[in-house]
From TrEMBL:
This is Uncharacterized protein. It comes from the Bacteria. Residues 204-283 form a coiled coil. The chain crosses the membrane at residues 40-60, 80-100, 121-139, 151-170. Keywords: Coiled coil, Membrane, Transmembrane, Transmembrane helix. The keyword Transmembrane applies. It comes from Amazonocrinis nigriterrae CENA67.
Length: 479
């Protein structure tokens, strides 16, 4: 399966939008620097607020446990007072579990299965428990008063609910701000290193559209300015032309008189030419008779020349056939037991039939299609051999697949990490990355030369990628 020329041009046109104009690159870098600083400030503020909120909840819970459970400073677990340990556990349970769940440090969201349904224990167990314990702790401060206020329980419940929910959403906001900070930092590195705006890679079509509209507006303004200048110049020329037309009208009258005189002279020359043509006609008739006689003599001469030409072409074809006659080259190498083996020296061969018969995956990404087109060009120039196989790979079936180009005859395997641009499949997690690295190590142990290229390398410096593949194959052949 091959990609037609129109498809290749559409892909190249699409990726031209991702190269940032150097004129605005510095502005984009400054914007990302400010965004990174802003996310860091938000992260710090949320963390500080959560700390003070947790400190206040800790103080209320410590007093509550002391009153309700009759605990004193002498009641300890190991060297820590029991009321302090219980207060720390209750205060930290909701923020820590929320941070772990939102950041997915364990690889996935925290879920509990019950009666065939999955639900979040944080929302349905930890958060209500935190509200209940905080509610009881707030009520403890009012239980010893002589005239308790009847609205105290309602107020205590509202305070507990607000405090717990605030701590819950503060924890979610901290993780979100940190993720945004990491994303902005990576995008800034992409801008600085490759000069590529990373937002279109995340399908931010709106930014690409605005950029294109901005460029179109600039071109339209420049074109309008040129048209205004042209109209102004034409107006000045018309005024100048009006003056010139009056002078030219007078000159035309003089030219008209001269033309009438020339026409009369040309009429006289025409009559003289007619007399000469009549004389040439008589001469041509005599020449035609001579040509008829010559044709009768030239016909057998032409037939003889044609037969001789065919004979010379046969001899030339025989000479070319002898030049193309070659025998396979053999290389002699000795094995460990002293016997001699004859090994055919591998050479690069390519034909359209071989490339056509090479089965390609049906779901290629735009990056993979562009890479295969460049690879095919190098193969057609006989600088690289035809791959034995082109296939996809993913650590798990649910994950997006990356492209593999297998030069099995030469012991080289090329991985193109384009899984982020596939239509189907999930993003690779930490476990998938670990499984992938294990596979690379396994391929190397089995004797393969493994090459791994990121999307940025393939799109920004494709010639270097192809050169590394060529060097790997040559080193395998030399070894």
């Amino acid at each position: 399966m091959t990609l037609n020329e129109s498809g290749r041009q559409e892909i190249e046109k699409e990726y031209q939008n991702y190269i940032e104009n150097p004129k605005y690159r510095k502005q984009l870098e400054k914007w990302y620097e400010k965004e990174k600083t802003r996310q860091l400030i938000i992260f710090s503020i949320l963390l500080i607020v959560l700390f003070f909120l947790g400190f206040g909840q800790f103080a209320i819970l410590e007093y509550s446990f002391e009153e309700r459970l009759a605990l004193s400073d002498s009641d300890k677990i190991l060297i820590f007072p029991i009321k302090v340990v219980l207060s720390i556990l209750v205060t930290a349970a909701l923020p820590i579990s929320t941070l772990l769940d939102e950041s997915e440090l364990i690889g996935q969201k925290i879920k509990i299965s019950l009666f065939g349904k999955k639900f979040s224990p944080i929302v349905w167990i930890i958060l209500p428990g935190d509200v209940l314990l905080t509610f009881q702790a707030v009520l403890t401060g009012n239980q010893n008063t002589k005239d308790p206020d009847p609205f105290i329980p309602a107020i205590a419940f509202i305070v507990a609910a607000i405090s717990s929910n605030f701590a819950f959403y503060l924890s979610k906001g901290i993780v979100a701000a940190y993720k945004k900070y990491i994303t902005v930092r990576e995008e800034l590195q992409t801008i600085i290193i490759y000069g590529v705006n990373p937002r279109p890679f995340y399908k931010n079509a709106e930014q690409v559209r605005l950029n294109e509209e901005y460029e179109a507006a600039i071109k339209e303004a420049e074109q309008t300015k040129k048209e205004l200048e042209k109209i102004k110049n034409e107006k000045e020329n018309l005024q100048f032309q009006h003056i010139k037309d009056q002078e030219e009208f007078k000159q035309l009258k003089l030219l008209e008189a001269e033309q009438v005189q020339k026409i009369q002279e040309l009429e006289q020359k025409r009559q003289e030419l007619e007399r000469k043509i009549s004389a040439y006609k008589n001469y041509a008739d005599s020449t035609s008779q001579l040509k008829t006689s010559f044709v009768k003599v030239s016909k057998p001469i032409k037939e003889l020349i044609v037969q001789g030409k065919k004979m010379f072409e046969d001899f030339a074809g025989l000479d070319e056939s002898i030049k193309d006659l070659k025998f396979p080259s053999l290389e002699i190498s000795s094995s460990e037991n002293g016997k001699i083996k004859f090994v055919e020296i591998p050479t690069y061969r390519y034909s359209n039939l071989l490339w056509k018969d090479l089965e390609l995956p049906s779901d290629l990404s735009p990056v993979g299609i562009n890479f295969l087109n460049s690879l095919r060009t190098i193969v057609e120039q006989q600088e690289l051999p035809v791959p034995n196989n082109v296939r996809n790979y993913a650590p798990n079936k649910e994950l997006a697949q990356c492209l593999i180009i297998d030069f099995e005859n030469y012991g080289v395997i090329v991985y193109c990490r384009d899984e982020g641009y596939r239509k189907s499949g999930e993003k690779w997690n930490a476990q998938a990355e670990s499984d992938f690295e294990s596979k690379l190590v396994s391929d190397q142990i089995n004797g393969y030369c493994v090459l791994k290229f990121a999307v940025q390398e393939v799109m920004s410096n494709q010639s270097v990628v192809l050169e590394r593949i060529k060097d790997a194959i040559n080193s395998k052949m030399d070894g």
